[in-house]
Amino acid sequence: MSKATNEVIAALKALFETGDIPDGTDFDGFIQLIQDAVQEHEHKSSGGGASGTGDAGQIAYPDDISGLFLDGVLSPMVLTGAVVSEGTDAGTIKVTALTALLRATTDEDGVLTPVSKALEDNITLAAADTVYHIALKYNGGEPTVSTQTGQCNGTTEIGIGVCMKDASNNVFFRQAGLRLSNGLAKFHRRAAHLREIELCRGCGITHADTRGFVVAAGHIYHGINEVETTQRTSAVDKFTLVYYGDDPTAWQFTADQTAIPNDQYNDYGANPGLVNLANNEYGCFWVYMVMDSEDLYVVYGRDTYKLAEALLAQPPAEIPTIISAFGVLLGCVIVKKGGADFTAVQMVTDVFFTGTAAADHGALAGLADDDHTQYVLTAELINSSAGAEDAGKPIKLGAAGKVNKNMIPDCYVGHIDYWSDVDDEISLSSTPGDVNLPNVVVADIPGDVTLVQVIGLLKVRMMIDSSTAANAIAAACAIRVKKSDGDWGVDDVALIDIPDNAWATGASAREGGDAMAGDNDVKSEVDGNATYNLRFEDISVDGDNLLLKDVQVGLRVYFK
Description:
The chain is mostly beta strands. The protein has helices spanning 3-18, 24-45, 63-73, 182-195, 307-310, 321-326; strands at residues 77-81, 84-86, 92-95, 98-103, 112-117, 120-124, 132-137, 144-148, 157-165, 171-175, 197-202, 205-208, 212-215, 218-222, 225-229, 232-233, 239-245, 250-257, 264-267, 273-276, 282-290, 296-300, 327-336, 342-347, 414-419, 423-428, 433-442, 451-465, 477-483, 493-498, 510-517, 530-539, 546-559. It folds into 5 domains: 3-73, no CATH class; 78-195, no CATH class; 201-358, no CATH class; 371-408, no CATH class; 415-559, Jelly Rolls (Sandwich), CATH 2.60.120. The chain has a 6-stranded mixed sheet. Strands 25, 26, 28, 31 and 33 form a 5-stranded antiparallel sheet that branches.
């Protein structure tokens, strides 16, 4: 084994045995030592006297070091620089000076090579309205930066970001961030593919002046990259109105707007364009923010709505590429035709654009129809039934605000869930034993109902193995329940049965949590308002220990 190889091993062991995290200076030293090892190894492969094993050009270490460091921490990555911005020439981008690690071949274990590159300006984008990947490439010699429509291969090519220009040579871009390792890059891609760009918190929309608005500061994520945004106001920062229309038939952008319209919507049909809202109806206006510039775009809704319909409206399926690739939806502003104020603001962090009841009688659909036979006189309302002769009559509540029980059929009419506080961690060992769970308080069960069934509920956010071996429930067991003034072993009953080998977790792994609902009816013990104790009885796992994170238990009470 070469001297350089031994030096790398010694340096790595010294860091990992003490638990220290390598910093930038350590990485510089490691890279130099690795290059020394490569040179000695190549010398030996061509007949030289240095020690080493493997094919020429490959760094050979013991399996534990190679797998842990070379193929793990030292993956193709940007080390410094590579910040994307608009180029000097219109319709181009610029990438700052950079240092990086790239593989010499497309093989997953190809030799890592440190490279550097000076600032490059006026990198061209071939076509308008096309999203390009910004790729740092290495094929011997000096690395290059270029744009391409396909993904980078992750070995001789790594992504710096994505970009696009429009027909007017306005450039949009999104920074990819440092590529710290293949694993981290894959995690980022997974987050980006699953969630794309999303609002985390803040960016609340509030009304200002006449149909103007303020967007609060907030936090937006693209994948695992967080972007902190500043407050924006329509009066000062302006926004761009967007609709799909004629002359020509394309997306139309009207910049420098300060107030949301109150007169039209965007017909996206065979003859696209702006159409007047119907009298006494409402328009939806969808507010987006583009990440790199924090510019605001407001997209017209697709129809004229009654208020109840507007509150149920969904974001338009078709939006410009500038918004779909680089923007995030903040919320929906609802405005009545001719109105000076917003009727409602729905934020993506508050609602999933599900409807609510109309705010006033005039906003209900169908009032203009000649079908008022559905309205009845108060004298026709009944609170108790004489039998079949009352079929079809409307019901009114009694003096206590309740329906007379003789009006309700013998069936389930509802249930109430009662939950415990959250226990942040419960540790299960290989020794069978009883493990207490948080108490559940049952309160405010209506006094005039009959309990039909009571079952148990269990939620676990995550399971973590700390035994370094595959882990699971070692033998069938149960969660049991009793009143707080009862005795274990005397008054308790089985609430939820947990089968053998449940909650299987890999060695030193984390598994997503579980949600369980038992099928044991425990109304013989849970028979009214009281505090109830719950615990795992005779529970054990295969190895020490299995950790349950954020555990919560509950009781579901069905009544009629």
